[in-house]
Specification:
With about 190 residues, the protein is α+β, with helices and mostly antiparallel strands. The protein has 5 helices and 6 strands; from the N terminus they run H-E-E-H-E-H-E-E-E-H-H. Strands 3-4-5-6 form a 4-stranded mixed β-sheet. The protein has a two-stranded antiparallel sheet with strand order 1-2.
């Protein structure tokens, strides 16, 4: 069917005269015109229905406030642990932050409210034996900025272990750091 013959049909789209405001509120069905201009009976599009002012909108249910309050209380009990790490070569900044966050979450006692911020500073130097010496200092503070304590870790490794991907090195450093941080908090 050619496009011109398809457009000659008046039943394709309703005109303004066919749709009046006094018509029933049921949706009007429109036939869709395909890409080649042919009308396909399977292509039926329902006209959108506009909600009236007195239409009822379904609610989430009677336990809405209870569920919201319990989630809020649960989050307040858990506290907030924020871990930030200063500059490190390769992906060290991200790898150390993620590894320490995971280690703290895994080792934190159930039900303990831990509100703290941990800032990691990394120093890297080369020893006389051409090994890379990595020093990690973790400063633990309360959310108001008061210092709880700090932990320092030192390790010697090959330069290629911290040049690009920290992977296992970050995980190996994060486990004892998390235990030390939790000990500072008395948890």
């Amino acid at each position: 069917m050619a496009l011109a013959s398809c457009l000659d049909h008046t039943e394709v789209l309703p005109t303004a005269a066919q749709t009046s405001p006094s018509a029933s509120p049921a949706p009007v069905s429109l036939a869709a015109i395909g890409l080649r201009g042919a009308v396909d009976a399977r292509d039926v599009i329902l006209a959108p229905r506009v909600l009236a002012a007195d239409d009822l909108v379904p609610s989430w249910g009677p336990d809405d406030d209870v569920a919201t309050a319990s989630i809020t209380a649960s989050l307040a009990r858990q506290g907030r642990i924020k871990v930030e790490v200063g500059f490190a070569p390769g992906d060290g900044q991200t790898a150390l932050r993620d590894a320490l966050s995971e280690a703290l979450a895994a080792r934190a006692p159930a039900g303990a409210r831990l509100d703290m911020e941990v800032l990691g500073n990394i120093s890297i130097s080369t020893s006389e034996t051409h090994e890379t010496e990595v020093t990690l200092e973790w400063r633990v503070t309360r959310p108001d900025g008061s210092l709880i304590g700090s932990i320092t870790q030192q390790a010697a490794t090959s330069p290629d272990r911290v040049a690009t991907r920290w992977g296992d090195f970050a995980k190996d450093a994060a486990a004892p750091a998390a235990e030390g941080i939790l000990a500072l908090l008395g948890a």
